[in-house]
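User: Okay, second chain of the day. Same drill as before: sequence in, structure tokens out.
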Amino acid sequence: MKPRLVMIGSIFAILGLFVTGNTYAQTKITRPKAGLPYKITTSGSYFLAANLSVSTKTTTAILVKSNNVTINLNGFVISGIGGNSTGVGIDASAATGVTIANGTITGFGTGIKLNSTSTVEGVQIYNNNGNGIATSGSSCFVANSVITGNSGSGLDFSDATSGYLSNVLNNSSNVINGTNMGNNVCSGTICP
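Assistant: Same drill. Structure tokens below.
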């Protein structure tokens, strides 16, 4: 009986190592001592544990340079200085397979820049000097977000392969390109 218990215990120990290994590790986003942007250069899962703000109009808060990254804003706010800002809240234009969720981005030139096969969900993006979300690649998806008060377009997709679902938009221009997948409100009416 003891060898069987040892074997079962060994299996659980191996499974425990796998679950706690790099596959599920999360990295906390903190303000670098050298200043922002916070640079993501390794694939994986990242999260905010506090609000993050920039102090100049040209500063980007988070710069994603690696593919397959998930950023959980955890309900926190990434804020620029507003006005004529040109920085970006989260710039993932050099990476693919990026997911951004659960928080607020405000006061930048552009709220979020994405490349191909990326997703934004459950984010409030408002009062940015340019676009709320701009994509330079294809097959992106934006859902369950509030995108309002941006001086440019709320959603600026590079082509029709990207889609948007269940968003509330109220911007100078609400949507450029992309495919309306339903349940979107544009300036108080159903999006065309």
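The first helix runs from residue 2 to 20.

User: Thanks, on to the next one.
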